[in-house]
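User: Design a sequence. Structure:
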């Protein structure tokens, strides 16, 4: 199993990961370190453990907010999908009605054409 070295709050840590996940783990560690450094800048030196816990909670807060937004967007997708299906069904109904009316108009025009043909072939007296 591959290992990578990451740095969090000025300390180096050796971590194992799945094959091919080295860059991903290094990127995650760098993002977490940014959280730690940001907190350190705003609250000062408060101890490594407390700082790490605060950074972890801040990251989880962002995760919970992202999950909430995802759930909200999934609900919107469901609503929009349903609306699209309703519009498609309505369009299909209108198409059938139009086809029916067009067929009816064609029959009437054919009847008029037949009547004209019949009138034209009648002997004149």
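Assistant: Done.
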């Amino acid at each position: 199993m591959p290992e990578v070295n990451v740095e969090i709050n000025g300390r180096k840590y050796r971590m194992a990961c799945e094959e091919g996940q080295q860059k991903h783990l290094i990127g995650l560690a760098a993002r977490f370190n940014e959280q730690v450094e940001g907190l350190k800048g705003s609250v000062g030196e408060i101890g490594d453990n407390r700082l790490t816990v605060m950074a972890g909670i801040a990251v989880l807060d962002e995760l919970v907010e992202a999950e909430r937004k995802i759930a909200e967007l999934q609900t919107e997708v469901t609503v929009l999908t349903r609306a699209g299906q309703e519009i498609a069904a309505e369009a299909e109904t209108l198409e059938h009605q139009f086809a029916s009316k067009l067929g009816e108009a064609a029959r009437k025009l054919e009847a008029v054409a037949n009547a004209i043909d019949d009138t034209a072939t009648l002997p004149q007296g």
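DSSP finds two helices and two strands in the chain. Strands lie at 3-8, 11-16.
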